[in-house]
Amino acid sequence: MRIALQAVFLTALVLQAASFDAASIKPSDAPNGNSSGIETEIGLVRAHNVTLKRCITGAYGLPEAQILGGPKWIAELRYEIVAKTSERAGDDRLMVMLQDLLADRFQLKLHNEMRTVSGYELTLAKAGIKATQSEPGTDSSTDTSKRGGRMDAKACSMSRLALKLADILGAPVSDMTNASGNFDFALRWVPDDLQAKSGGSSDVPAGPTLFTALQEQLGVKLEARKVPVDVLVIDHADLPSEN
C-alpha cells in the first residue's frame, strides 16, 4: 500500500489551515543531548529543544528519513516553541496549524516526490485490537516519549498510530489494519538502547520491546516491508522571524 503524502495535504485543505492566536519561537539553551519533543493539549502545542526538521516531522506526520534537502542548520539549531489557539483543537487540527506557523515564521517551502524505501506495515495480531474504543466526541491527543518508552493516546486512529510509530522508528509505517474508529490506550515498552544495555542489570527496567508491546498491549504488529512512499523535499527555509 502506498503511503500517500498527498493525503496529508488533502487533510490540511479539508481542515482549513488557520493561524494560532499566539506563538513564541525562541532559541533553546538546553544542551543538544537533552530530551526534546512535541507535546499537545487541546488548543496548545509545546515543543521543547526541537530542530526545524523535528517540527516538520510532527506537522506532516512523517519520520525524519522522509524529510530531504534544506540547509544544514534545520537539523542542528534547536528551539523552544509554544503556540496557542482559543479553538478546542485536537492533534489533527493543531498539526495543520503548525504547518501554517512553520511556513510563516521560517518561510518554509516544500514539495513531494516518490521513493521506494524500507519500512513497515501495521497489521492486526491474531487476538485483534485490545485498545479501548473511544467514546464519541472524545478530543484527540497523544503524549509520546521515545526515550521514555511510552505513548498515551486519546481518540487515536490506527492511521495516526502508524504515523507516531514512523516517528519513533525513523522509517515509514503503513496502516494495513483496516480498523475504523478511534482508540484510547497507554502503550509502554523499554527502548532499544536500554534493552541493549540491560545485560541483566538491575539498573535497567525490565519490559517488552516496542514490537512486543504493540502485540501484547494493543493487539497490532509491525512487519518489515519495502514500501513506496512520498517524501518531503525542502525547497527553502530561513531562520525564524521575531516573535
What key phrases describe this protein's structure?
4-stranded antiparallel beta sheet, 26% helix, disordered N terminus, 35% strand, alpha+beta, 243 residues, 12 strands
Description:
This protein is of the alpha+beta class and 243 residues long. It has one domain. The protein is 26% helix and 35% strand. The chain has helices at 5-15, 52-60, 91-105, 158-169, 192-198, 210-218, and strands spanning 22-27, 37-41, 44-51, 67-69, 78-84, 109-124, 132-133, 141-145, 150-156, 173-175, 183-188, 220-236. Strands 1-5-3-2 form a four-stranded antiparallel beta sheet. A four-stranded mixed beta sheet has the order 4-12-6-10. Strand 2 and strand 3 form a beta hairpin. Helix 2 packs across helix 3. The longest helix has 15 residues, at 91-105. The protein starts with a helix and ends in a 7-residue tail after the last strand.
Tally of alpha and pi helices? 6
Distance between the termini: 42 Å
Residue share in β-strands: 25-35%
Shape designation = globular
Count of the separate structural domains: 1
Radius of gyration: 18 Å
Question: Which runs of at least 5 residues are low in confidence (pLDDT < 50)?
Answer: 1-15
Report the biggest beta sheet as strand number plus sense, adding barrel if it closes.
4 strands, antiparallel
Along the chain, the helix and strand elements come as: HEEEHEEHEEEEHEEHHE
DSSP helix fraction: 25-40%
